Amino acid sequence: MITRSVMTNGKRCRLFEGRRQRRISRRRDEILKAAACVFATKGYAGSTIKEIAAQADIAEGTLYNYFDGKREILLAIVNASQAPLETMLQEVCELREREDVIALAEKIFDVLISQTPFTRTLMAEAWLDDVILQDVVMGRLQRIGQHLQAFITARIADGAFRPVDPVLTSWMVIGMFSAIVIPILRGHTPVPSPERRRALAEAAVDLLLDGIRVREG
Questions:
Q1: CB neighbours (10 Å) of residue 93?
Q2: Same domain assignment for residues 58 and 75
Q3: CATH code, 1
Q4: The pTM is what?
Q5: 175: left (phi over 0), alpha (psi -120 to 50) or beta
Q6: Which domain holds residue 147?
Q7: CA–CA distance, 44 with 178 (Å, rounded to integer)
Q8: What is the pLDDT of residues 166-180, one digit of tens each?
Q9: Cα(41)–Cα(182) distance, rounded to whole angstroms?
């Protein structure tokens, strides 16, 4: 009986802890979304913890149970926005078929556009803060570049791509995507429909593959 009671209590504790962690995660997500809205409206420097708490509909003191301050919130926004993208890019070296590359490019467009408030905040602060630019934005772009370089290097090795410079080519790909996405994030270009995103993905991939792949004959 004692053993069964101990096991039951242990199971209850694990269930309680699981629910508690899910509540914490949900609350953190709510705070990050609220902060992204406030940052997008007032800028990082012009925003206060009080305003973020009000947007999240919680007390200011409650917010400090989840984050130490604005800087930690901004970095958490960055981590939340880059995780899905990096997960997808880890698959890039396994891609062989043109359609698979297009599908990945399409998903990347979807993720970037769905995270517009987060990315807009990051872009605005990177323009004003060299530390954010170097440590956060450039670090993020370098990791993306490394995935692309590995993909290009692997395709050169198996004879699918001509012997181009993987580093230079990866930065050209990043630049191409940035030129498409930045006007959308800034609100100067309408958010493309799913059909338009597909067309953009096809155009970007065609430009990459037709530009550097080995020609038959």
A1: 15
A2: no
A3: 1.10.10.60
A4: 0.69
A5: alpha
A6: 70-217
A7: 22
A8: 999 999 888 888 888
A9: 18
